[in-house]
Amino acid sequence: MRTDIPTLLGLGGTAAIVGIALALGGNQSRFVDPSSIALVVGGTLAVILARRSLRDFIGHLRSLKVVIRSRSHDVPALLERLRQWSLIARRDGTLALEQQITPGDDGLVNQALMLLVDGANEENIKASLQAHVACLQERHRRVIATWEDWLVVAPSMGMIGTLIGLVQMLGTMHDPAGVGQAMALALLTTLYGALLANIVAGPIASKLQIKNIEELEWCEVLINGASRIARGEGPIKISNAIVTPFPKKRAETPGKVA
Predict the structure, then answer these.
(1) How far is CA 9 from CA 104, 197, 206, in A?
(2) Disulfide-capable partner of 56 in 25, 52, 197, 251 (CB 3.0 to 4.6 Å)?
């Protein structure tokens, strides 16, 4: 596991900028209203729980640790491991790959190794690993979709709070203290909804989508490499075949048309 420094800097920097803006505006306490926070945050959580299953709701909260800390899906490092597996399989047979299985390794890696050790052919390896990846991608899709719900629900709860505050304000026009409290509810709920959607949920959903794409590419490299090892191909041929789906961006030469 490694810490995602850009995510921490981005979220922390955004929070700092908003905090500085509030501090420069004078009395910071005017931007804090417990009833508004409870309405927007609590209402958003309740609505999302109603829209999604309990499993999806809990899963999307657990995914917060993935945003900050995640497994490194390093394609070059995986490619080097595939080369080593190919050498071992050609020299000592696929049964020797059993020594490469470690409890702390990625589950898909160990599954690929066990299939190779069991003597599965190329088609069986692809089918088994692709089924595993399909389940993984579906789970990721549901988690990301749940975070994307925040982009709709949080501003809507802010607008509901605004309408509630306006109704309260119209009903307390004779009481200056009541007007001020109702106006705070009306304005702060909109602010909280916008902040929650745009500086919390939005970046989290985008970051999870990026990590999902990176993991999918990593899984495709593993599946491709493991199936070629089962076919009996050597490390050089495997390397050339695997890097083909992810070519480096070609530098364009001025004056030439690609």
Answers:
(1) 29, 18, 15
(2) 52
pTM: 0.79
Cα separations in angstroms, 245 against 209, 240, 241, 248: 20, 10, 8, 10
- Across the chain, mean pLDDT equals 84
Q: By the 8 A CB rule, do 89 and 81 touch?
A: no
Where are the domains positioned within the chain? 33-65+72-243
Q: 75-120, pLDDT tens digit by residue? A: 888 888 999 999 999 888 888 888 888 887 788 889 999 999 998 8
Helix 122-171, helix 107-117: angle, nearest 10: 160
CA distances from residue 5 to 2, 69, 227, 232 in whole angstroms, order as listed? 9, 9, 35, 40
**β strands within 103-193, DSSP E:** none
pLDDT at residue number 28: 67
Name residues whose C-beta falls within 8 Å of residue 185's C-beta, 6 or more positions apart in sequence. Answer: 33, 35, 36, 39, 161, 162, 164, 165, 168
